[in-house]
Amino acid sequence: MLQLMVTKRIGRRQFHFTVQGSNFHDVVAEYDRLSFPDVAECGLCGSDNLDLTSRVAQGKFKYTSVKCLSCRGDLTFGKMERDDQTVFLRRREDGQLDWRAFVKTEK
After folding, report:
1. pTM of the prediction?
2. Is 51 exposed, middle or buried (0-12, 13-18, 19+ CB in 10 A)?
3. Cα separations in angstroms, 65 against 2, 32, 72
4. Residue 24, exposed/middle/buried by CB under 10 A (0-12, 13-18, 19+)?
5. How far is CA 107 from CA 96, 101, 104, in A?
6. DSSP symbol at 105
7. How far apart are CA 95 and CA 73, in angstroms?
8. Under a CB-based contact definition with an 8 Å cutoff, are residues 30 and 1 in contact?
9. What is the pLDDT of residues 56-106, one digit of tens each?
């Protein structure tokens, strides 16, 4: 079993992921499943105070995102339909990361 440690920078934090496979090709294929770039700052306010978050909506939909702890903006990860283990950061049609502003819901 081969392993590869991958470091991704999200704001001022570093996150370390370990991928493994039975051979070099499998390890690199697993690394490719983390197909998202480092995120240096919030696309809305420019803060580097970012963190990774996860949540479950309606008891069944799993979301993982980069959350800005300053303005509460959100950048959600997407999954490939044919391979739900491959993740990427959602982008708008113009190719920019799809940062969403926090919207307070009334109760």
Report:
1. 0.83
2. middle
3. 28, 18, 11
4. exposed
5. 33, 19, 10
6. P
7. 18
8. no
9. 989 888 889 999 999 999 999 988 778 878 889 999 999 999 999 998 877
Instruction: Compute how many other C-beta atoms are within 10 angstroms of the C-beta atom of residue 37.
Output: 10
Tokens of 89: 């950061």
Ramachandran region of residue 27, left (φ > 0), alpha (ψ -120 to 50) or beta?
Answer: alpha
CB atoms within 10 A of CB 62: 11
**Cβ atoms 65, 76 nearer than 8 A:** yes
3-class DSSP assignment, residue 7: strand
